[in-house]
Every structure is written in C-alpha cells, then in structure tokens.
Amino acid sequence: MFLTPLRRQRLKEAIISYTVFLLTPAYFLFQICVIRPYLTVHLDWGPVKHFLHIVFASYLFTNVAGNMILCVLTDTSVKSYRGPTAAGSYCKFCKQKQPANSWHCTTCNTCILRRDHHCILLARCIGRNNLRYFICYLCHLSISMFYATYYNYIILRSMFDLRTFAATTSRIFSLSDWSIFANSSLILKARLFVCFWYLNLIILPISLNFLVFHLYKACKGLTWYEYKKGKVPVRTHWKRNLAYVFGTRWYLVLLWPSVESPLPNKRAHGTRDLRRETLI
Ligand SMILES: [Zn+2]
Ligand SMILES: [Zn+2]
Fold first, then answer.
1. Are 64 and 121 in contact (CB under 8 A)?
2. 120 Cβ partners below 8 Å, 6+ apart?
3. How far is the centre of ligand 2, averaged over its atoms, from the C-alpha of 96 (Å)?
4. What would the pLDDT profile of 181-227 be if each residue is shown by its tens digit?
5. Between 43 and 31, whose confidence is greater?
6. Percent of the chain with pLDDT strictly greater than 90
7. At what angle do helices 131-159 and 165-173 cross, to 10 degrees?
8. Can you say whether the dihedral through the CA atoms of 95, 119, 75, 85 is positive or negative?
9. Residue 124: closest CA among 36, 17, 199, 7
10. Model confidence over 119-135: pLDDT tens digits?
C-alpha cells in the first residue's frame, strides 16, 4: 500500500523472524511430545536411553534458542564499542567517522562494527559482537536437524514398513493416496510426520551450507563483505582468526551460549617472524 521500501523490508523481516522464533520451540516440542513416544515403542528403548535422548535433545534446543536470542539481543552497532579503534571512512548517513572495517546497514539504519551481513531470518545485522552466536546457532541447528532427520526417518520407515532410507524417501515423495492408513487420526499423524520430514530435508542442507561457509570465513579472518569484495585472507594462523570471531576462549563457546569469551581489541597479522598488530 503506502509503505516505503524500507518499511516493507522491515515488515517482511518481522514476519520471517517471528516465524523462526515460533517454529524453533514448536519443532522441539514436536520431537519431544509426538516423535519420542513412537521412538520408545519402535526402538524398544530402556529408561537410560530414553533419559539420554531427552537430555541431549534439550541441550541442543537450549543451544539453538540461546544462541539465537543472544545473537538478536547483542548490540552490534559502533556505539556499543568504547575501546580504541583504527579510523575508517566517513558515514554519510550517520554523519560521523566509522571505525575501520565498519559498514553502514540501510535496514538497521546504523553503522555496524566489523559488519558481516544483514540476516533476514533474524532481522538483525551480524557483526563483530554477535558473529560468534550466529555461527554457534548454525552449528547447533545443523546437529539438531541431523538428529531429528535420523529419528524422523526411523518413524516413517516403520510407518510405511520399509527397510532402507532410499525406499522410504522415494515412498514419501511419491505418496498421493493417504487412504493406505487405517483411520483419519493415523492419516493426520502421517501427514504431520511427512510435513516435518520435508522441513528437515530443507533446513538441514541450508544450515550446513551456511555453517561451512561462515566457518571457512572465520578461519580465513574475513567477513562476508570482505569475501564478496575479493579481499585477500589475513595471513594469520586459523586459531588466531577464530579468536577474533569467538573470543579468547573460542574452544568453549560451542558448549554453551553464555560462556564468557572476550573479543580481543587488537588483531595480529602475518607470520611469527613478521607479526604486527592493528586495532580492530
Ligand atoms: Zn552509518
Ligand atoms: Zn542490518
């Protein structure tokens, strides 16, 4: 109607992000409340396996939701940083000088510190302060999808009484006659299971693909913006580059979203013999 392109973009992102925020707990509840009782029957699980499954699924969900929430709530604008920075270019929108490697986002309408990209799924810019949460979110999402895909496959395989993955998937993809199921309650369940199965098969490769790409960039010391511009990767050991994204305790951040891991203010370049440091 009378919406400006910017407001239309923000409205679109709000709808997408609210869908993601609602879908995440819905997905977890579906796996725990609907799929899990079937698993205990079909796989003949004892109480220990049953308990471990709930603990592991809850751990994955907490990591996915926690990293997602922290990614959205973390202020990643240049105003959030009070430390020393190398001077960058002048921003004509904010009418102020930016720190080096900072870029203006027209959707967020602010300059973002070491901007990576604007994520339409989370309606948030990804930059220096929240790239860690974004990558951890992708990592736990990929593991969760892999886990869910496997167990959803077990249920569907038993439902259709098939033995292999290929036979089950081709049976689901070619399914048109739902009357093979005995009653309407079973048809509804089968439709729900197949629907989530499709969702698994869409989300898993997308999240894996993004995860590999962002990890590659992090190891090379590049932001998405720099990667697109064809900037040469920073000649530094990959562990140092990871510390620049995940903080000084980079090896722990994957375990829990709220692990303290301060980001360094300075960045080392070059090899051991010829090393220099610059401000962020
Ligand atoms: Zn700006
Ligand atoms: Zn943005």
1. no
2. 12, 13, 16, 17
3. 18
4. 666 677 777 778 888 888 899 999 999 999 999 999 998 888 888 88
5. 31
6. 42
7. 90
8. negative
9. 17
10. 999 999 999 999 999 99
Task: Return the closest-CA partner of residue 99 out of 269, 257, 266, 275.
Answer: 266
Output the CA 146–ligand 2 centroid distance in Å.
Answer: 30
Burial class (CB in 10 A: 0-12, 13-18, 19+), 122: buried
Determine the distance separating the centroid of ligand 2 and the alpha carbon of 107, expressed in angstroms.
5
Give the separation between CA 35 and CA 158, rounded to whole angstroms: 12
Measured in Å, residue 211 CA sits from the centre of ligand 2 at: 20
Ligand nearest to the CA of 110: 1
Ligand at minimal distance from the CA of 90 is: 1
**Closest ligand to 115 CA?**
2
User: How many residues are recorded in the chain?
Assistant: 280
